[in-house]
Amino acid sequence: MDIIDTPNLPRAYGYMPIPFRIGQMVGPLVGGTFSQPADRFPEIFGRSELLKTYPYLLPCAVPAIFTAIAWLLTYFRLKESVSTKAPLWELIKEPFLRQSSTKPSTGSLRDAFANSSDEATAEEVASRPLPLRAVLTPKVVSVSASYASMALFYAAITSIVPIFYATPIELGGLSLDPPRIGAILGASSLVQGAFQILFYARLNYRFGARAVHATGILSCIPIVILFPVTNTLARAHGMSLAVWLAICAQHALTVNLIMCFPCMDLFMRAAAPNRASLGTTNGVGQFAVSGARILGPVSAASIFSYSMQEGHDAWSVYYFLMAIVFLAIGASMSLPRDPSLWENNE
């Protein structure tokens, strides 16, 4: 993104998640199509005792093979962009050594390097990467917290949706089979990706990144509410038109949530203390987001399973999801109206 000028950043970040959306579209289709292959394709896999014993081996093996191919292509075909190589241990200990040797203040870029060069100009200071402690400014921390809380909800919701669809109606789900679940999730990802590519930049230019982000976060409230509403409709009328309309409404609202990701990328870029520290700043944000993506599916799926047990509150998982929503709303309050306001204040 260093080669993109600031006015075109929203358009560029709108295109960045394309590989992720393609994976989200193809992944559910693979899982829904190749699950239980011995039963669904007996003429091809009916004689395989392995696939009869492990009915979900094939849908797990297909993406694993693609991942292995991608790794091999990356390792053998891509060229390293760094001409000088440093040992791994040197890369690990270097940030800690810099922190101990330079005690920077987060308030000023010049203070961060005062001990290392008394004659450094402002341009020279701005071109140097800051140590980790100097990167952890209030701006970076606030954006990372907002990004992590939003990613926590998204990870939780994406793990709950297929479980909710597969759970019997009498237990709080919709009793859908894997092929239909895969088709729904694949179609939803296709619409989300297309909408983001076509409209995100326009919405950002028209309303600003914070307004788009706030709309996506607020959309999480009806997304959660539609889970029990959809199950109630299914209990009363079966898989009627009303149920399918509720499913479509939930996925349509998820499109708003998807718009939060490029907004967070723009805020993270603007929060960086200087351009040279952009990599470290993104690393801090991705560290927080990765933790949220680990915690989200584990906690949400566990609470959903707990709520399905007899004698427990069936709405426990929805209370949990709603708590994450309000956490994300609170974390987003510290964001400026537009990322450029932070950049202009540097």
UniProtKB/TrEMBL annotation:
Gene3D superfamilies: MFS general substrate transporter like domains (1.20.1250.20). It is found in: Membrane. SUPFAM superfamilies: MFS general substrate transporter (SSF103473). One of its GO terms (cellular component) is membrane. InterPro entries: MFS_trans_sf. The chain crosses the membrane at residues 56-76, 151-169, 181-199, 211-229, 241-261, 317-335. It is a multi-pass membrane protein. Keywords: Membrane, Transmembrane, Transmembrane helix, Transport. PANTHER family: MAJOR FACILITATOR SUPERFAMILY (MFS) PROFILE DOMAIN-CONTAINING PROTEIN, MAJOR FACILITATOR SUPERFAMILY DOMAIN-CONTAINING PROTEIN 10. This is Major facilitator superfamily (MFS) profile domain-containing protein. It comes from Rhizopogon vesiculosus.
